[in-house]
3-methylcrotonyl-CoA carboxylase alpha subunit
Amino acid sequence: MFDKILIANRGEIAARVITTARRMGLKTVAVHSDADAEAVHVRLADEAVRIGPAPVGESYLRAEAFIDAAKRTGAGAIHPGYGFLSENPDFVEAVEAAGLVFVGPPASAIRAMGLKDAAKARMEEAGVPVVPGYHGEGQDAAMLAAEAERIGYPVLIKARAGGGGKGMRLVERAEDFADALEGAQAEGKASFGDAAVLVEKYVTSPRHVEIQVFADSHGNVVHLFERDCSLQRRHQKVIEESPAPGMPEHVRAAMGAAAVEAARAIGYVGAGTIEFIADGSEGLREDGFWFMEMNTRLQVEHPVTEAITGLDLVEWQIRVARGETLPLRQEELRIDGHAVEARLYAEDAERGFLPATGRLERLRFPEAACFERGALRVDAGVTEGDAITPHYDPMIAKVIAHGATRAEALSRLVAALEATQVGGTVTNLGFLARLLRHEGFAAGEVDTGLIGRDLDTLTAKAEMPEHVPVLAALAAAGLDHPPEGDGPWDRLRGFRHWGASEVHVVLEHEGEPLEVALRRDGPGHWHRAGTQIGVSRDTRGLEVTVSGRRFRAEAVRHGNRVTVWDAGRAFTFAIPDPLAVADAAGTGGDAIAAPMPGLVKRMRAEAGQAVEKGQPLAILEAMKMEHTLTAPRDGVVAEVLASEGSQVSDGDLLLTLEPQDE
């Protein structure tokens, strides 16, 4: 028995484990690299231990650092999370040799499933259906090419020690086999230190369906139904859901039984996932699925299983590690509704999904209170102000929606993503929203090639709605929130006796200049000059009116940039200094007016004072910067109309000069 647990991981999974452990009354220990010293999981844990510099090889892959940290803090167990050392049998043995409990399967089970060729041979012996192919030890290129011919094209070359799509090549013609083999072997060697491959028949309408299994040390094994992870990009999962669309009950039973048998065959203990490839060309059927591999750990997508079963899989892991029996029998498990998960990443979908970095100047998710109880869940390992660094996976969060039906779950997930705001880095939010609205996906017509077939449409550049620059201009000019005061004079901000106030704001969007003229219709009401696009400001924020349609929107200024969020898409604008040229600040002639709303920080002139052209007369603080207003010509100050500390609107007169002689 143990009462303190160390989590040998980082990010959202570390935070996830800590949350459950603390609910169970366990003390928790976090580990962190230098880059994660102030991370969410560190702040959540009862204790935290530094394990090294930012690179994973010097921190999160150091087994001895985890064991030493556990001993120093008195932790009796280590939870590996997923990734890093979670499927390393040597790590398991080192943990146990140190007298600690490993919250996961035994090393023997991990080894049995560690190499794809050996795992498939083991599954064949256990009677689990396996994809037709070559899974032998021989690696001669000519022999492998002959095996591919025997299997029949198209074939898939896979690194036997691979994962995450690395060391994998689809080959559709015999003449392409040699180059594909060389590439798969090189990638397998570089990624896993093993160049050996296997060759399998490629299923032309493949669906990735996996079964969640759980086993205890008393011989009990159950499955917790299936997850469909067919929406993938380059063999990386993007959207996961449970149950699988179109899954007949008899096929679910057959697949679940095969998964349970696979776990029994290797003496499995704990949480694991049996991954199957299914032929979706004629619907899911009992003779149309085959074993691919087993993940001997908790999966990233485990929340969808928790949503439909009402169970906490991390709690089950801890109970099994304590030696307890499984809490439920197979016949006691039920499916409740449907759940879908989307992985929110800092990546640029328009540029080939390049990973992105940046500080999260804004990170806001919709309030769970806005949804039915249990309908929305967000698992995040970062908060607003944290940095996405190049050292680790750029996942920001997992957003999970649950509903009574698949359509309801999808609708809720789209709504949640469109209400999510991320500022400071580019994300895949827009891509995810388009994918969830994809006609084929919405109809349940899913397979692993869907994203690739429609990639251009799914990653097309988003057109900027016409109301977005108006919101950006309001935020840039500081007009997107009420004035600090609430007296009658504050409400007259921007008022003029001789006509409506107009603000001219210059922005830059993707390197192109953009000028927006905002015309004031009354307190808190503006529209873009020459258009019917209006914006009203109240205590709840901004309301946009376009062609009679009214909706809420939000724009936020951070430094010299403004971000506007619209239906899950982020549009960013730069704010150039409008007073970069000093003498452009004045209105010319005999008057010096404020070019934008701001605070008179300093007044450097008084009535009767002689001034020269270009001489500083006032300093205006606006857009979080100081701007110097200068004399437009030589002359004498006739009148000072504003005092230091006063708030002025654009166009308000600050000083006038005495008229020039004829």
User: Anything to note?
Assistant: The chain has 18 helices and 39 strands. Residues 484-500, 580-588 have pLDDT under 50 and may be disordered. The chain has six domains: 4-103, 106-131+206-336, 133-201, 337-461, 466-574, 591-657. The first strand starts at residue 4 and ends at 7.
